[in-house]
Amino acid sequence: MGLFKKKSVVLSYDKENKKSVIKASICNGEQVAGFKDIHTGKIEEVMLIKSPADLESFKAMYGINEEIAKEY
User: Fold this and answer.
1) Do residues 21 and 4 lie in contact, with contact meaning Cβ atoms separated by under 8 Å?
2) How far is residue 60's CA from residue 25's CA, in Å, rounded to a whole number?
3) Does residue 55 belong to any structural domain of this protein?
4) Are 47 and 54 spatial neighbours (Cβ–Cβ below 8 Å)?
């Protein structure tokens, strides 16, 4: 029984130079959510996605409303 609600903190990222992506492995199906630099193509991995709930948590954490593209 909790009296206080956990505050949801929205983190930020550089929306001009980075876009959100899911890096998916063809071999084992592992998925990692992160941000891809538009200019260099380098991906910064943020969290492992094990279920749809993890993906929703990632979207809520960064305030992302649109669909996230997958890269293999």
Assistant:
1) no
2) 24
3) yes
4) yes
In 11-68, beta strands by DSSP E: 18-24, 31-37, 43-49
Q: Is the pTM of this model over 0.85?
A: no
The verdict on residue 13 lying in a domain is no
26-37 pLDDT, tens per residue?
999 899 999 999
Q: Residue 43 corresponds to which tokens in the numbers above?
A: 């991906």
Q: Please, are residues 23 and 39 in contact by the beta-carbon 8 Å criterion?
A: no
Domain encompassing residue 55: 18-71
What whole-number distance in Å separates Cα of residue 59 and Cα of residue 40?
23
